[in-house]
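The data layer described in this paper is built around a simple, fixed record for each protein. Such a record has a labelled line for the sequence and another for the C-alpha cells. For reference, a complete record is included directly beneath this paragraph.
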Amino acid sequence: MFNAKLSPDGSKFAYQIIDDDRIRIAVFDAETRQAIKTVDLGKGAPVAWFRWAGNDRVLFSLHSRAMLLLTFVPATRLMLHDLVKDETSFVGLDDQGFKGDDVLYVDPAGEFVLLSLKDKAFSQPSVYRFDLDGKGATSARIVQKRTLGIEQWWTDNTGVVRLGMKRQGSKRVSFFYRSNAAQELVEVAKLRREADAFDNWDVLSIRAGSDTGYALVKDERGLNILREFNYRTSMPGEEIFAHPEWGLESAVFENDGTLQAANFTDDFPNVYWFDPDMAAIQDKLERTLKTGQVQILSSSGSDRMLVSHSAGDDPGVVYIYTPARNKLDVFGELRPDIDFKQLTAPQSIEYPARDGTRIRGYLTLPKGRAPTALPLIIMPHGGPYGIRDTASYRDEVQLLANRGYAILQPNYRGSGGYGEKFEDLGNGQIGRMMQDDLDDAMDWAVAQGFADPDRVCLVGASYGGYASLWGVTRNPERYRCAASWAGVTDFEAQVGFDRGFFTRRNNKKWQRRVQGDEPDFKLGLVSPLQQIGMLTRPILLAHGKRDRTVPFSQFTMMSDAAKTAEVDITELVLDDAGHSFSKVEDEQKWYDALIAFLARTNPSDVNVAKPADISKEGDSKTGAQVPSDGAEISTDATPETIITEPDLAG
C-alpha cells in the first residue's frame, strides 16, 4: 500500500497499487472498508504523487520525458480524477513548460487549485487558478503574473501568493515578499546560496495574517531543527523544536496553518506531536499495540485515521481508527502469506571506520542458528547521498536471513539522517572511503564472531549495486561474490546521463558531490566497467530494460566489456522492469536468481546448489530457480482482511 491517504472528511481513503505493470489508485469506503472504485493510471505510468482535492476528487502527477534541444529532459503533468463523474482529465495549459505539477494550493472543498506554470520552456512562471471541473485550460485564469524574474512562488494557507524567489546567476538569489494580497511584492533579501542564512528560506509554511512562518534550519551539529522565521524582516525567530539526536525531515500543518507535528527517523520513521490531542492518541495506540512501530499514516482531523503497526520482523497491519468509537478496524495485513515465526528482527549496530568515523547500521541474523561464523551478506543502500537504511521490515533482508545468511546494512559516510557533516564526508569518496566503510563493516562482523571471513558477499541495488560490483573488483581477497540490481557500472557515463535531469545548478552540485575537492580525479579508476580486467570473482548483473534512473546501457556496457575481457558473469535481464519492480513476477525472478547465485557462490547451510546448478557457474546468463530447504517467503503484496480486531486500551 503506497502513500495511503484519507479524504478530508474521513469518509474514504485511497492508496497506490501496482498490478500487472499497471499503476492504479484504489479507493475504499472508510466506514465499510469496501472498495469503491479503482482508477487506472495506465501501464508503467510513473506517478510521482497523488493527493485528495476535496472528498470526491484526486489529483496526481505523471512523470515523463520531453525533447529539448536534442536532449531528453524530465517533464511532469497534473491530472485529475473525479470520482463522481468517473472521469480523468488534464489540469494545465495546452502549451506549457516542462514542470506541470508545481501545486501551490488546493482548495479544501476541492473546487480549484493554484498552479505555478510556465507558458514557454524558458519563461518565468505565472500562478494560475484552474477550476477542477474537468475543462482543463479553458478554466485557467492568472492570479499572479510573472514578474521581477521570479522563478519560484509560495502561497499562504489560504491561497494568497506571498513569496517569490529570483535567481541572480548561479550563486545568488533574491526573495520578494508581501504581507497580504493588497500589497506589492518588495525585495526583502539578497544572499548567496552557500550562506547559512539561505537555510532560513526553506519555506515550510506561511500563515495568513502573519509575517511569520516556519523553516527547517541546520544547527551547530549540522542537524535540521524547526524555527520560526519572519519573512518581512528576513530574521529567524524562536527555536520551536530540536531533537537531541536526530535531524528533522518535515513538518505537518493543519489547514489553518497551525503546526501539528515534526517528522524524524531514528531506527524507524517517527513523529513528535505538538498537538496534545494527537500526542494522546499516539500514546494510546502504542500502549494498545504494545510492541513494534505505530505510525499515523493519514488523518481527517481527530475524527478518523489510517494507522500502521509494524516492526523490523513484521511487515505490518493497516488499521482504520475512529477515536470516538475507541476501536481499531483492520483493513489489511501486509504480506499475509508470510509465516511471522520465520522472521527475525534487525539489530542496531555501530562500528569505527579506519579513520575513526563512527558508522551506524543494522545487523540481521538468521533465526534458529548460532550467531557465529555465518555466511555474511553486506548490503549497501542506494542513493548514495542523503539516503539511509533503517530497521524497518524489508523483504530482501528477511529472505536472505531465512536462507541462512547474516545481513549487514552499513549507513556509510554520505548517508542521510546523521547530519550535514556526516553526509559531506562522502563528497568525492565514491569507490574510495565510502567503499572502505563497507570493508570495515566486514572486519567488525568478523571480529565480533558473527561472520566467517571466507564467506562474505556484497548485494545491492542502484548505488548499492555499484558498491557491490566495485567491492568485489577492488578487493577479491575479501569477497567471494557480488550481486547487483540496476547498479551503476561506470560513474563517468552516469554523470553524463544525469545532466539531462538536473538544472544547471543542481548538475554542478551533483558533480561536486561525486568529484569532491579533486576535480581532476578520474572516476574511471573506481569504475567496475573500466577496471573489468581486475574482476576475478563471480558476479550477478541484473537490470530492467525500462530503467530511467540508471539506464540499461550501464548493463550492456558491462556485459560487452566482460565478453571482450573473457570474464564470465551471470546475467538477468527483465524486459518490463524499471529501476524498481512494477510486477511481482519480476521481483520474484530477481529473488530466484539471487538465491540460486548465492547457493553456487556462497552457500549457507540451507541454501546449497544442486549439482546441476553448480555446473552453471560459468554461464553468461541464467534464470535458474533453486529450491531451498528454508520456508519460502512470499512477495505477494495484495492486502487481505484479517479477523482479529483489538479493543483499544483506555
